[in-house]
Amino acid sequence: MAGPGAGDDWQRYLNFRCTGCGNCCRRTHVLITEDDVRRIEREAGRPVSEFVRFVPEEDVALEKRSPWWIRFSGGRAAMTLRHRKGGACVFLDDADRCTIYEHRPVTCREHPFELEVSAGGALEFIALSDIVECPHDWDGCISRRELVAVARWNQRQSDAYLDDVQRWNRRRKGRKTRPGFLRYLGFDV
Question: What is the distance between the alpha carbons of residues 82 and 84, in angstroms, rounded to a whole number?
Fold first, then answer.
């Protein structure tokens, strides 16, 4: 295979440049892991209650069998970044800039790419997500190495978090609440 994905234009994706429109930070549910939460809490100095939200099943488009579902006594939900009134991420400012850019979730770092990396670390597939309109430019410079590093970081972090979710979901004792899940992960709430 000549490179990741279908066709010969996959290298074009390495020229992607974000124009800073903020579309991906509006009305999208950004799934976050406990490592994301810890990083934001520690580095941005924000309490968990200000930026974590549990989105119920009827409000987020996840597959029925997705491992991201957390079981609570009142139904399933996914842990995401909180939105402000109007649907923008709580960390998006009035100039459409991320106020925690250096500490943002790994999923945000990987966006707008859909990536697949082989077990050996090779970039096998790359495409642009179509989750939101993205008025990007093609004059950027991203290396395959950067993309692979972010994709692998995201996978490691997600795997560890999903193991915790699975253990939580198998628990039989007590009432399962959202604050209880955060305490289970080791956060003060």
Answer: 7
